[in-house]
Amino acid sequence: MFERYIRLWDLIVDGSPILTATSHLLPVRFQQQEAMLKVATCDEERRGNAVMAWWNGNGAARVLAHCDDAILIERARPNPSLAVLSRWGQDDMAMRIACAALARLHAHQSPQPPTVVLLSEWFRPLLCLSTSTPAHGVLHLSAMAAENLLAGPPIDEVVLHGDMHHGNILYFAEREWLAIDPKGLLGERGFDYANLFCNPDGDIAGDPVRFSRRVAIVADSAKLDRRRLLQWILAWSGLSALWMLEDGLPAETRLSAAELAANELGLLGN
User: Fold this and answer.
1) How far apart are the C-alpha atoms of 184 and 96, rounded to whole Å?
2) Is the CB of residue 98 less than 8 Å from the CB of residue 196?
3) What is the per-residue pLDDT across 76-92, written as a single tens digit (0 to 9) for each?
4) Do residues 135 and 85 touch, judged by C-beta distance below 8 A?
5) Please, which pLDDT band fits residue 110 given cuts at 50, 70 and 90?
6) Which residue, among 222, 220, 150, has the nearest Cα to 186 in the 3D structure?
């Protein structure tokens, strides 16, 4: 899988491959620069690769080459980590860093935007959750929030990252903090901030005091309406929880974030 692109771009292997269910990655050197070769193995990752190339390094890692299933991007530094910042008492800073990265992505304008998926399509599994479907109670509140948010015209429609969390914002030395691994969606920019509230772990995401502070920080930094941000957190956390439950994975952190958002919206009884 790697050999074609190693020859095409005259790459030097510089580490062990990293294989995931959706892509294969290989540390390489390209023209004396450390880089990462990523070969997509599904349409979602191919779409993400195209979005990375379209961003052209504005808020995202710089794409050095792009061809078919593969992109070659500049390689991040191993430290510092946004998740570690949060865990070491600097969560306020981590959230502001994430907001700054998203602001740059959302501000990018260029002709011929890439093929993307509408948020209404992304949320279809949750929107199809009927009131008669057995499910965790908060998921029905999440479905209602998603339906309300998507019913009217989007506010500030942009190309979205779609999976913005602490592990997808890396440090690139003099280029500082940049995004990787987008899903490539189209919709209201407020959606992109919701996943931050499920990360970096359950202890932080599930702390009610920390949650309220994060909402205030993001609403202020991103200039978002607080209530609408809470609705996006409720909607996204429910969708993510639904996917995890369907895959037989623990969804406590997502459900906790959804419940915290629903509580702040006054949707849960005391």
Assistant:
1) 22
2) yes
3) 998 899 999 999 999 99
4) no
5) confident
6) 150
Helical pair 226-246 and 137-151, crossing angle rounded to 10 deg: 130
Residue extents of the structural domains in the chain = 3-74, 82-264
CB 66 within 8 A of CB 150: no
Catalytic entry in 163, 201, 220, 247: 163
The CATH-assigned architecture of domain 82-264 is Alpha-Beta Complex (3.90)
pLDDT confidence of residue 131: 59
Distance CA 255, CA 131 (A): 17
Please state the rounded mean pLDDT for residues 232-258.
96
* CATH class of the 3-74 domain in this structure: alpha beta
- Which residues, at least 6 apart from 181, have a Cβ–Cβ distance to it below 8 Å? 48, 163, 168
> For 263, phi and psi rounded to 5 degrees?
-65, -45
Q: Is 163 a catalytic residue?
A: yes
What count of other Cβ atoms lies within 10 Å of the Cβ of residue 110?
Answer: 11
- Amino acid, res. 126: L
Rounded to an integer, what distance in angstroms lies between the CA atom of residue 46 and that of residue 53?
11
The residues facing 25 across adjacent strands are 18, 38
- Using the 8-state DSSP alphabet, how is residue 266 labeled? T
The sign of the torsion formed by the CA atoms of 112, 196, 91, 214 equals positive
Question: Does the pLDDT value for residue 160 go beyond 60?
Answer: yes
> Which residues does 194 contact at the CB level (< 8 Å), separation at least 6?
229, 232, 233, 235, 236, 237
**pLDDT tens sequence across 121-157:** 999 999 998 655 667 789 999 999 999 999 988 889 9
From residue 237, alpha-carbon distances to 82, 123, 224 in Å are 20, 11, 18
Q: What is the pLDDT of residue 54?
A: 96
Residue 20 has pLDDT above 60, yes or no: yes
Measured CA to CA, the distance from residue 148 to residue 144 in angstroms comes to 6
